[in-house]
Amino acid sequence: MGFSPPSLSFILFLFHFLSTISSSHFCAPDQSLSLLQFKESFSISSSASELCHHPKTESWKEGTDCCLWDGVTCDLETGHVTGLDLSCSMLYGTLHSNSTLFSLHHLQKLDLSDNDFNSSHISSRFGQFSNLTLLNLNYLDFAGQVPSEISHLSKLVSLDLSRNYDLSLQPICFDKLVQNLTKLRQLDLGSVNMSLVEPNSLTNLSSSLSSLSLGDCGLQGKFPGNIFLLPNLESLDLIFNDGLTGSFPSSNLSNVLSRLDLSNTRISVYLENDLISNLKLLEYMSLSESNIIRSDLALLGNLTRLTYLDLSGNNFGGEIPSSLGNLVQLRSLYLYSNKFVGQVPDSWGSLIHLLDLDLSDNPLVGPVHSQINTLSNLKSLALSDNLFNVTIPSFLYALPSLYYLDLHNNNLIGNISEFQHNSLTYLDLSNNHLHGTIPSSIFKQENLEALILASNSKLTGEISSSICKLRFLQVLDLSNNSLSGSTPPCLGNFSNILSVLHLGMNNLQGAIPSTFSKDNSLEYLNLNGNELQGKISSSIINCTMLEVLDLGNNKIEDTFPYFLETLPHLQILILKSNKLQGFVKGRTTYNSFSELQIFDISDNDFRGPLPTGFLNCLEAMMASDQNMIYMNATNYSRYVYSIEMTWKGVEIEFPKIQSTIRVLDLSNNNFTEEIPKVIGKLKALQQLNLSHNSLAGYIQSSLGILTNLESLDLSSNLLTGRIPMQLGVLTFLAILNLSHNQLEGPIPSGKQFNTFNASSFEGNLGLCGFQVLKECYGDEAPSLPPSSFDEGDDSTLVGDGFGWKAVTIGYGCGFVFGVASGYVVFRTKKPSWFFRMVEDKWNLKSKKTKKNVGRYGARGN
Ligand SMILES: *[C@@H]1O[C@H](CO)[C@@H](O)[C@H](O)[C@H]1NC(C)=O
Ligand SMILES: *[C@@H]1O[C@H](CO)[C@@H](O)[C@H](O)[C@H]1NC(C)=O
Ligand SMILES: *[C@@H]1O[C@H](CO)[C@@H](O)[C@H](O)[C@H]1NC(C)=O
Ligand SMILES: *[C@@H]1O[C@H](CO)[C@@H](O)[C@H](O)[C@H]1NC(C)=O
Ligand SMILES: *[C@@H]1O[C@H](CO)[C@@H](O)[C@H](O)[C@H]1NC(C)=O
Ligand SMILES: *[C@@H]1O[C@H](CO)[C@@H](O)[C@H](O)[C@H]1NC(C)=O
Ligand SMILES: *[C@@H]1O[C@H](CO)[C@@H](O)[C@H](O)[C@H]1NC(C)=O
Ligand SMILES: *[C@@H]1O[C@H](CO)[C@@H](O)[C@H](O)[C@H]1NC(C)=O
Ligand SMILES: *[C@@H]1O[C@H](CO)[C@@H](O)[C@H](O)[C@H]1NC(C)=O
Ligand SMILES: *[C@@H]1O[C@H](CO)[C@@H](O)[C@H](O)[C@H]1NC(C)=O
Ligand SMILES: *[C@@H]1O[C@H](CO)[C@@H](O)[C@H](O)[C@H]1NC(C)=O
């Protein structure tokens, strides 16, 4: 019994001895065992790593030399593991304090970055790796607090704890770290919550520091200027600390600074001679949405080493300084979202290395060609939201590497010419005054992912079926043009990643594509406003991801397409203004239309009773959604949905749709019989339009439960009896139309009802009240509601104890307008910088959702 420890050390000794004499590198067995146990404590999951994928531990096999394993480095003499690099190894699981990782005492370099440790805490045992010089715990989903034992690692040269979004660093721990880690050269704490740490405590950071990254750390207060005195500081990144103030020193700077990012901070920067002469080595400068004061931008022309310059979002006015043409090393230049006027300076012809240029969202005017036609290396060009009123500069068509071209929202004129190369992946020329046909070279861009030529109104010709060669297309938006001919039948099945197909507002004829095949990814299909005929293709049921289907304003002759009720994610269904006819009978499946938020079948020839069966299933209309986000494609989230809709009596184009919207429009048909009580279940409805039908009977008092209603139109029906007093409590009601029915008795008074005038009530038998300038007498005084609220199953409608009194709280006209105006966003397409900002912020800030960021997430780097 007592012999086993000595015999183990003897074996170890033998190993050591053998490995020394054979000078091979056998792994010490205890190390091997520790590694294998560590391996066993995690599972391999492809979603656990995001930036790269190398499942290194898969090569680790018992009985082989661990020094040869992937990611493992040993001391050749001792067989001790001294280095472990498991970055991107797809490890998923919890890292406990009892992990055998901590038996690898001799580690000098440890890199575990980009795995998923499932909100583990960083164990204090990390402090025991006394010889560690490199520790990389980037992007591991660590949570909790950084243990102060990390400060024992006094030999650390490089420490990276960034992108663990639920990790925080306490002041005491940080102070110890500053005191003890005197050899640090790289420190990256990006996205670690340091909101309690005094910026002043950064003062004593090691003078050997060459790179300091504290982006998005929640730092608050005055940033100590003497940081910049650190003699070896080459890179400083403080992006997204909008609580950080103080000023950037103009003199006595570390004169080796090559990278500076003060974006989205409030640190004042005085761009003046002193500063510029101290920044001569700067290669990367990002001052996006920062606090630049008293500046002479022309001075930037002296920073001739710059390869990256971002001055976006700063409200700079005046002309773009021509001295920027001196920055001949520039690869990336971002001046979007400023107020630069005039033209692109001539001098820019010298920026021949430029790859990425974004001047979006400035009031710049053309012409552009004479200046930048030497920029033949451009890969990405965004000039959207400017005032360019010229033809598209011809040199753009000849750029051999151009993959991203966004010129939307200008006043560009003329034709679209042929592209001479096939490098495009993104093309947005929407909202201009372009005319002519779509050049055939566009259909040869075989990597094209988004083609957006919307709202040029004069693009003509037919949609060539060669478009179906673009197999990587995710977004195709040719809406609001004058395209004619038929829709190529192949549009239904040419790409199984197409998310958005918007051909609305053209002159397309013929049939709706009927070839939608299984496994397609379509989320948005809009063919509104064409001259399409025939039936609604049942192949649409293959579009199981569909969220928006808009076939309104065509010449479709069909009966109600029941098969649509099986689409599980359908949120918007618009079939208005067609020639649909017949009865609309209730649901045929369970869960039918349960996510529908907008249901518009107005202006058709439907008849018979209202579809009670469907109304009973519209679950999304029964519950309000408080999320104030815009509906967008899931697979291509930068594409925000738009629709045309009648909103409070006016046909409006909604360029964005808030996810809170709830609309039911069955108007202009010939629905008969009574309004069913189940309408009262649709409590989230904001707009209800049943006008111009042949509805009879009383107005249901249960409508009074629809407390979110902003617009109610029951006009031009055959409704009789009194207006239920319950409607008087609809506090958001801004539009009411009960005209042209056979209503009688007193009009409810108070609250919103006092704001409606006679036109809301005209053409009825005998309504009285001050709104119609007719006094009510005796027995006409407000009394019981016509159809008693207590009868029948109305009680289920009020469910959850939602009493009448409660809803009157919150009444106020101003509020009504506030709520209502939120839906109507005027047609301003988002500038491209917005997407980049959102995506960059997403990259930096978002939780590890492991959601596909898309190809443009890292654009510009
Ligand atoms: C991940 O964390 C969750 C929540 O704490 C826990 O339920 C789950 O078991 C953990 N999974 C692993 C593999 O550790
Ligand atoms: C390590 O600790 C965890 C949690 O305390 C426990 O579930 C696990 O069994 C332990 N593993 C070993 C090998 O002791
Ligand atoms: C740490 O490094 C020193 C000096 O190289 C060495 O003597 C010592 O054994 C190392 N400690 C461990 C635990 O590897
Ligand atoms: C500093 O590091 C040494 C070991 O290198 C350790 O003994 C000491 O406790 C550390 N001090 C602090 C404040 O962490
Ligand atoms: C950071 O920590 C502070 C203090 O613990 C907390 O109030 C704050 O909400 C945290 N910030 C974030 C973004 O989690
Ligand atoms: C920096 O270090 C000096 C000397 O050790 C000390 O006096 C001073 O208080 C420290 N400053 C901060 C802000 O911690
Ligand atoms: C900037 O360059 C101009 C002309 O090249 C020169 O006259 C000026 O002195 C330079 N300024 C600084 C601060 O280097
Ligand atoms: C373009 O805009 C400029 C400045 O507003 C104007 O002077 C010029 O006439 C416009 N050109 C065309 C072709 O409209
Ligand atoms: C659905 O797609 C498949 C091919 O993927 C096709 O055979 C089938 O007919 C389609 N369904 C309908 C209803 O058109
Ligand atoms: C797009 O949708 C996602 C998920 O619903 C949401 O988080 C995001 O904010 C939306 N984007 C915009 C621009 O509204
Ligand atoms: C509506 O339907 C009713 C009953 O079917 C019928 O009498 C009436 O003529 C129809 N009205 C219109 C405008 O078609």
Automatic annotation (TrEMBL):
Leucine-rich repeat-containing N-terminal plant-type domain segment(s): 29-75
Lineage: superkingdom: Eukaryota
Organism lineage: Eukaryota, Viridiplantae, Streptophyta, Embryophyta, Tracheophyta
Family: Belongs to the RLP family.
Stated name of the protein: Leucine-rich repeat-containing N-terminal plant-type domain-containing protein
Membrane topology: Single-pass type I membrane protein
InterPro entries: Leu-rich_rpt (IPR001611), Leu-rich_rpt_typical-subtyp (IPR003591), LRR_dom_sf (IPR032675), LRR_N_plant-typ (IPR013210), RLP23-like (IPR046956)
Cleavable signal peptide: 1-23
Keyword tags: Cell membrane, Glycoprotein, Leucine-rich repeat, Membrane, Receptor, Repeat, Signal, Transmembrane, Transmembrane helix
Keyword Transmembrane recorded: yes
Compartments (UniProt record): Cell membrane
